[in-house]
Queue: 2 jobs
Job 1
Amino acid sequence: ETGVTQTPRHLVMGMTNKKSLKCEQHLGHNAMYWYKQSAKKPLELMFVYNFKEQTENNSVPSRFSPECPNSSHLFLHLHTLQPEDSALYLCASSPAAQGRSNQPQHFGDGTRLSIL
Amino acid sequence: GESVGLHLPTLSVQEGDNSIINCAYSNSASDYFIWYKQESGKGPQFIIDIRSNMDKRQGQRVTVLLNKTVKHLSLQIAATQPGDSAVYFCAENMDTGRRALTFGSGTRLQVQP
């Protein structure tokens, strides 16, 4: 049990479909993140939310649309994706940073996304 | 869940031996570092962290060493076990209030029984 739960674990979709990835954390954290892990690159940050507010968008294409309704839930809405978007999408959470304190991020097990 | 397809450096050790996994970082302003372990089909799992005001930190069977002069981080695993086989990532963060991590490309550890 990681404390960060992602659903679905696997998703296959066509380029014209619309789907959503879900992440839920049970750790009482206030910051949540989306990362992309693809076969040919290191882990890449996509979005950061802190207290439900988006604080970072790492130049992610608009076909990826995040939503954070509360500090425990994070969604990634997908539409008209491309084959190169096939990857493992990881959600993470951490306590909101206070002052000079850093805390580790805790990851879910990811959603393996395949675009046909 | 690991970076399959990425040309990862691989460290192969015998069960019971000590393992040392290295990581170089480039940002001299980074002052918080984390090691993660990622097993097949799973997300990265936190192992140990260290702040830049320290040069060594120990956990259970693991030790992280930080050399800020040469911007080098290492993870030492004592008495390596088959269950330690995984991809290991170092990550860094600058203490500017930005809470995002920058990850290295990882090292695959293979433990031979």
Note: Chain A touches chain B through 34 residues (CB under 8 Å).
Job 2
Amino acid sequence: KQEVTQIPAALSVPEGENLVLNCSFTDSAIYNLQWFRQDPGKGLTSLLLIQSSQREQTSGRLNASLDKSSGRSTLYIAASQPGDSATYLCAVDGNKLVFGAGTILRVKS
Amino acid sequence: SQTIHQWPATLVQPVGSPLSLECTVEGTSNPNLYWYRQAAGRGLQLLFYSVGIGQISSEVPQNLSASRPQDRQFILSSKKLLLSDSGFYLCAWSEEPAGANVLTFGAGSRLTVL
């Protein structure tokens, strides 16, 4: 059974700081891994999708990496802004998506 | 472009009352459809998924049921709500094939059972 863990559970950083969110999973037989953003009381927005054959994906200030063999992914946010404050979830797709519990990020101005 | 609609956005219901949450997708055909629940402080739990009309798979035994009466319509129901059914319910869709599934979520429905 796939288990997805996200560390840290919560993170508070000053504006402008670079930061890394971590995601680990137990079963490396996956098709892809996705990172989502969720604003309070809202649905999820897909940020990045990394296919199992890929090592990383970039979108603007976001960079996500995938090391399937070690069961790890990181989401790197460069030059963080208060608007980045949200909950970030990773989800692993091995036929069905399994989500982590998320990291609550707060960027202070 | 594809859009996903989910309603109602918020719902307060007494214990024992029925439930119906509706989700529709526009701009695509034969989508994979999903219902997730997010309990406070927890990750998303997959409740049901559907690969076609009338094809529903249940992930966890529970007080809820799902139906897909039309290609782009997915309904989450209950005959009698329990307190434990409270949570944030999210509908989502994805295209085939598996392995390239970008999952797109609706805005969510917050259910409070009193």
Note: Chain A has no helices and eleven strands.
